[in-house]
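Q: What structure does this chain adopt?
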Amino acid sequence: MDQKLFTLLHTVGCILLLVFAFLIICPVAIVLRNFSGHCIIGASVESITVTNLTVVQDNVSAHSKCTYPEFMGFAVLFFSVVYIVWNTILIVNSWQSPGKETFIGGIAAAIISFMLLVSSCIMSSGIARFCGELEDFGRSCEEVNNQPTKWMSYLNKDGQMVAYTTSKNFYSLLRITEAGSWLAFFTMLLVMIVHIIKLKTTPSGMEFMQSLQPESARIIGSDTPKRYDQI
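A:
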């Protein structure tokens, strides 16, 4: 395949990642703002009345359950912006992407893919856990999400109890973040595959991979015990 086609496919993937990054960052930032820096998926349901939902934060460190996905959103944002700018320069100037850059980009994509997988699992399991607790009280996340809910008490970031804050659409916001995280994960996998194919099929990629072979052989050879003939 042509080098320009790879660059174009890579750019499209990075543009999608840019969109998904905002789907991760913005909704979860709203939830964290509404709950004084804590993520509601780290809360446990204490009791429910007819009109009010009482929630107590079961662990102040539950804050990390949303900050990690938010951090990953910024990581995806940084990755996509860097490569959109770089690919634009390559396309405009008709330059070929160096094999070393393709290799490093593939490694970065693999690492971010793994971290996105962890982030997506955190969001999915956290939402499922909280909604499961609501169902134990005969309510559902969809029901609570679609009406103004009075969270009668929860712990703020200083460990102090805060009473009577009203929030709406928290479930929809967290679901958007969850969807954005999974979409970013699968898109990042595709970007990684583009890097791998580019290394194996383009002249610059194949040249770089061939340059690694003597170095690999030298390293492996240095670990092999030397044998000397007896005289």
